[in-house]
Write a structure and sequence with these properties.
- The complex is a heterodimer of chains A (270) and B (255).
- Chain A has 270 residues and is α/β, with parallel strands linked by helices.
- Chain A has helices at residues 2-7, 57-65, 104-113, 120-133, 149-161, 179-196, 207-213, 244-261, 265-269; strands spanning 15-26, 29-41, 46-50, 72-77, 80-81, 89-92, 167-171, 199-204, 216-221, 226-232.
- Helices cover 37% and strands 24% of the residues of chain A.
- In chain A, the strands form 2 sheets. Chain A has a 6-stranded mixed β-sheet with strand order 6-7-8-3-9-10, sandwiched between helices. Chain A has a 4-stranded antiparallel β-sheet with strand order 2-1-4-5, with helices on one face.
- Helices cover 81% and strands 0% of the residues of chain B.
- In chain B, helix 2 crosses helix 12 (217-250), helix 8 packs across helix 9 (158-169) and helix 10 (171-195) packs parallel to helix 11 (204-213).
- By secondary structure, chain B is mostly helical.
- Classes of the chains: A alpha/beta (270), B mainly alpha (255).
Chain lengths: 270, 255
């Protein structure tokens, strides 16, 4: 095995999920959240993980983030095993997780202050750059509670981008927003992704959202959570979530989901 | 401005009614001296330095005891929230002692420390520590775990997470605990000063006590007013700015 690995000559993937398993102690004994999941993500790729809630996609994201340790297998980031959270893999959560005791600027600065090799003037400049990128430069000194849900997620995005991570992990970041705000953010996220060339792993249960954003859509099925199928989405960008071409892909993936889950397609597609 | 005016008008009318009721003999003069006499006493007490000296002594005891209470209570609360062992042991002790009215410490303090400053100090600390500790503990427990996780992904670890995330996140709870601790400290100190006659310092409580002994009702009521005034002032100077900050940042409703 070791010899084989030595002899294989492949370009290293940005992220490699290698045979990862994870179980939790639930009310009815052990629940296997992930069973032997393997996934490769290329540099600059936008990958969406789709599946019904409870299929382990968020757990996988947490393991990649280093917030949870796998029971078996490992995650490699740039070929190095992940042992804990790090600024090279920033996470954006479903709830914004912004700190209410800091203003918008303070929140974006939080991660930057932990980054050595920058003075405070430079940190503020960087923070302002990212606030501008998400269109909130005018709200630098607003309090968090004064922002709408969509604005909060924009700040969370700026905060996640600020330490300049190579990988961005997003856990249903738009699930709690209204449809219009969400559509706006799809546009912004695609723009920012192209501008900043990040590698993004995006967890969602919304197939259309996944097709709109991802280069690749990875289908999960629950109990135990595992990868069932992967779809490349060769549509040109920027993509409009309401376009017919996009709907075609969504239908195809939803059909596949239905087949694995045995649930009505409408529920999965929202 | 308008609120100031209505408050001023209210208290003027209150004092006027009180003065008249005493002057026309409806209220007995011996038991309820008119406000004019109370004011006369206060002016006299200020001019012969009794009032300032006593206030100074009382406030020194309060500030020292309260600060010590915070210094002990805050870390205890943090430790209590961090370690489950402490929660099941020290936490129960704190919960029990917090329900104990702080004046109940007075007999014990007298027997342990005698009629000394130490007794006062001890009583004030006992009034402060438990509520500060329990509030800190509750505050830390109520911090959404998501905050700590988010901070970790940004590179925050250990002590940094505690100081920059957990502590500020539990600030609303800690401040209300500090406020409660302050109120308990103030009450227990007054109780202590009324009960404990000591020679190292003549505080406001002592003035109140001797007012009763001498049946100087103007002194009793005057000192009570001073005690109320100090309590209000402390609230305005110490806690109002912090609470305003909390309301603004967290967006909680103003009460």
């Amino acid at each position: 095995m070791a010899v084989e690995q030595e002899l294989i000559n492949v370009a290293p993937e940005k992220l490699t999920v290698d045979n990862v398993s994870k179980s939790f102690r639930g009310r009815q004994g052990m629940v296997q959240a992930l069973a032997n999941v393997s996934l490769q993500v290329r540099e600059g790729e936008f990958v969406c993980l789709v599946g019904r809630s409870g299929c382990g996609k968020s757990t996988l994201l947490n393991i990649i983030a280093g917030l949870e340790a796998p029971d078996g297998g490992q995650v490699l980031a740039d070929g190095k095993p992940v042992t804990g959270p790090g600024r090279d893999r920033m996470v954006m959560f479903q709830e914004s997780a912004l700190f209410p005791w800091l203003d918008v600027m303070g929140n974006v600065m939080f991660a930057l202050k932990l980054k050595p090799n920058l003075n405070n003037q430079e940190r503020r400049e960087v923070a302002r750059y990212y606030l501008k990128l998400v269109g909130l430069e005018k709200f630098a000194h607003a309090n968090i509670h004064e922002l709408s849900g969509g604005m909060k997620q924009r700040v969370a995005l700026a905060r996640a981008l600020a330490p300049n991570p190579r990988v961005l992990l997003m856990d249903e970041p738009f699930a709690a927003l209204d449809a219009l705000t969400r559509e706006q953010l799809y546009g912004d996220l695609q723009r920012i992704w192209q501008e900043r060339r990040k590698t993004i792993i995006f967890v969602t249960h919304n197939v259309r959202e996944a097709v709109c954003l991802g280069d690749r859509v990875v289908l999960f099925s629950p109990s135990p959570g595992r990868i069932r199928e992967q779809f490349d989405i060769p549509l040109p960008r920027p993509r409009d979530i309401n376009s017919i071409a996009l709907a075609g892909h969504s239908t195809q993936i939803t059909q596949a989901l239905k087949q694995y889950l045995g649930t009505p397609a409408a529920e999965v597609a929202e | 401005m308008k609120r100031w005016l209505s408050a001023a008008a209210f208290f003027t009318i209150l004092a006027a009614v009180w003065e008249i009721l005493v002057q026309i003999g409806v209220w007995p003069h011996v038991l309820i001296p008119p406000p004019s006499e109370v004011v006369r006493y206060l002016v006299r007490a200020v001019s012969d330095h009794t009032l300032l000296d006593s206030s100074h002594i009382t406030l020194r005891r309060l500030v020292l005891g309260y600060s010590a209470g915070l210094v002990i209570g805050l870390p205890l609360g943090l430790l209590n929230a961090r370690f489950k062992v402490l929660q099941d042991t020290l936490g129960l002790v704190a919960l029990g002692l917090q329900t104990l009215p702080s004046v109940c410490w007075v007999p014990l303090a007298l027997l342990w420390f005698g009629q000394t400053e130490h007794a006062m100090f001890f009583i004030v600390i006992m009034g402060t520590v438990w509520s500060v500790m329990l509030a800190t503990d509750t505050g830390v427990r109520n911090v959404p775990p998501l905050y700590a996780r988010a901070a970790q992904t940004m590179g925050s670890r250990g002590l940094h997470t505690w100081l920059k995330v957990i502590l500020p996140a539990s600030l609303p709870f800690i401040v209300s605990g500090m406020k409660q601790g302050w109120a308990f400290a103030w009450r227990s100190l007054m109780a202590a000063e009324i009960y404990v006659t000591i020679l190292t310092g003549f505080g406001l409580g002592h003035l109140l006590h001797y007012g009763r002994e001498l049946h100087a009702m103007d002194q009793v009521i005057g000192i009570m007013l001073v005690i109320i005034g100090i309590g209000l002032l402390a609230d305005k100077i110490l806690f109002s700015p912090i609470e305003r900050f909390l309301h603004r940042r967290w967006g909680t409703a103003r009460h």
